[in-house]
Fold these 3 entries.
Entry 1:
Amino acid sequence: MILTLCTACAAPLPEDGVVQCPACTTRYCSERCERYDRRRGGHGKICGAIESDGGAEQHHANKKYEEAVADAVFECAEDTEGQTCFICMDGDAEEGLVRGCSCRGASGFAHVSCLARQAKILVAEAEERDLDDDAFNARWRRWYTCGLCEQNYHSVVKCALGWACWKTYLGRPETDEVRRMAMNELGNGLFIAKNYEDALPVQKAQLSMLRRIGAREESVLVAKTNLAATYGDIGRLEEADREQRDVYSGWLELLGEESRHTMIAANNYAWGLFRLGRFEEAKSVLRKMMPVTQRVLGESHKLTLTIRKLGAMALYSDPDATLDDLRKAKTTLEEIERMARRVMGGAHPLVTEIERNLRASQDALHARGLP
């Protein structure tokens, strides 16, 4: 369930022993709250509507989907004016159109409902024909990628499709793989749209569910990675650090230091330590991982450059940095800036980040009276 708070008092619901309305499955933390809401909280007036909508979770998902579609249509209104849906070939002013991909010109405009219906049909076909994982995943991608340009949907459009996906499959058992994938789409959509406070309970519920059903460790680590990212973006850095540390040690134990999962987790963990001002710990993690990424991925790989950039940042940002540390940071950033520019071009975001960090390292040296 995504609904994780008591309807009456907003307290977190326990994982076991939840009390719920027998008619519409609205959930409460205790019988006292259920009685209060039924007698005085007005639940009796809306219970029938919730029940007819498929129960509390479905009712909630339907409502959030409508809100998300309205937000997406509003954000896309200027771009979509006068256009038609490339799926149904209709302008349908009642729902409105969106475009949240990389299509150009008159392409890529659609109703969220049409995008969702298209994805639902393709997934149903894959399940009916019992297609292999590759073929199934190719169809599942329609929940988050454009059928024309094959680019991921972004921002509010991805969020609306996340709710569409979740409301489509939430009635399945927890052990159903498609239901778990739908919950992941919802969490990702909320995160991409920067609805972090809404993404957090979804990601927590997903992690709790994966543990409850005994899911593979890889799935648990991916869920913890997503949760850490959300903690970090809402400023709960200590909680993000705990999750990132667990993810890094988990991948290290599961796949070893040469796995790309482990390398990415090491970078994320070091970044979390850096944001907490724990520079020595960050440098320690990076010193272990830098030679691994250089050996496995190569000197010019984006992840190698990113890890070296963070290592230089940890050197010049440390209040206890020596002159040698500052010179090393500047030299490193000059070296990887040339490499990144040659491989990625001057407009690449990583190149502009390195340039900004190089200026910061030079400023740190100037502050010590050095050129």
Entry 2:
Amino acid sequence: MRTGYQIVTRATKESATIVEEFCQRNGPALLPLINVIESASQQVESIIHEVGVQTVEMILKLSAEQVAGPRTPGR
């Protein structure tokens, strides 16, 4: 099994420290923003799922129409 290594440079450590300090100072203010982002992410995921389902359904209907011909009014 191949093991991946992560190279941490001084700039990476400094960036991590800056982000950590920012989060400690502004954590309570960031929480509502994170909740909004999470909610938006869930909505986008839901929309993508619905579009995918409708696309597959349309493809199946078109395929059936191609094989059996157009729908005719039934009794």
Entry 3:
Amino acid sequence: MRFIDLIQLVGYNLGRRKGRVMLTAVGVVIGTAAVVVLVSLALGLQKNATQQLWGINDLTSIEVYPGYSQEMTASAVKVGGGGGGGGQDGMVYLTPDVVSQIEALPGVKLVVKEDYLNANMEMKFGKLNGYSGVTGVDVGDLALMGLSASQGTTEMAKGTAIIGYYIPQNFYNPNQRPNDPPPEPPQLLGETVRFTLIKYTSDGQEVRKSFNVKITGILAETRAGADYSVYMRMDEVNGWNEWARGTRINRNKEGYGMLIVKAESPDVVTGIADQITAMGFMANTPQAVLEGINSFFTVLQVVFGGVGAIALLVAAIGIANTMTMSILERTREIGLMKAVGATNRDVMSVFLGEAAGIGFIGGLGGVLVGWGMSAVLNLVGLSYFAGQVSANGGLPPTMITSTPLWLPIFGLFFAAIVGLISGLYPALRAATMVPVTALKYE
């Protein structure tokens, strides 16, 4: 039997029993739609989680902090050959020797040293006062750290600062009256802000020291700590820290507060982080967080898909039952087909084709229904959460469901395969009938 003849015969047989075929296909429609909607929901939640995760956009970055346990200290000293920065207090410091070791690791592109201002500080601009932490970096351009500017530049220069996206909102009027509206965030780009450091002597006397700092850049929003930081050159922050504590800083003993390690590609980030952890330091990577999220949502997709597959399993039983009843009704027809020369393979192909056809029809309807339900769920969900966010604050979700092209295609073919498997037993039963017995059947 030619393939085109088989398709025509299958289509004719399904058309003879439209009502029964449609009722049987409804179960496949429900199962396929459930698979598409539930997996789309899991994919949408995964994308929403990764897009709103802090710092997830830079997968080549590793944040390295000093280690704290005695076990880590021993490991670091062993790896570093005595230059690992182990301290008598049990900490493992990020000393210049450690920086050199990390720079020598395969796959490391850049190591940026950071330290923080360890003194009270006030910012003053006109009548407004502000507050923020100050981070010193030893890099000439913050773009090397993966940061970009929404205004101005990311290049570091002496006597200048680059501020985070939300720093202007930290300014307030200290003389504001109770009923006055809050002041508008100041436009700081290109302006000079007065930084005042505050320290206390041993007898409790307050000492102040002021500097004029020009704001040369405002960073683009990162949804991370950079949004609330003021970046300056490392040498200037070092000088301020030495003034605040009254002693010089010895990096060989005290190390740096933090390192930003940039890898050559996201593929090597996890390996580099593992090596740094083995040296006794704490290494945080967005890549590790992303992998954990993806693993969780992969399990969620399997669970959701399994729930839909249960509905398809019920539909498969319905297809098997329909095909079995069809064999009983068409026994003489089967005998006639064999009598005129149809082989067992021909008969089996016809019934398998009919079962797969029911699965395909139901799958097509399920894909259309599931795709439509996903779109409606996305629209309704986004509208609901937008209202919740406007009332309670926070970041609105970017999507509720996500239906990639492969999902409907997979759902369609999966439904057809389920139908094909469901018709396997009835088709084998029809194919093995004895022609003479089938023709005598009433």
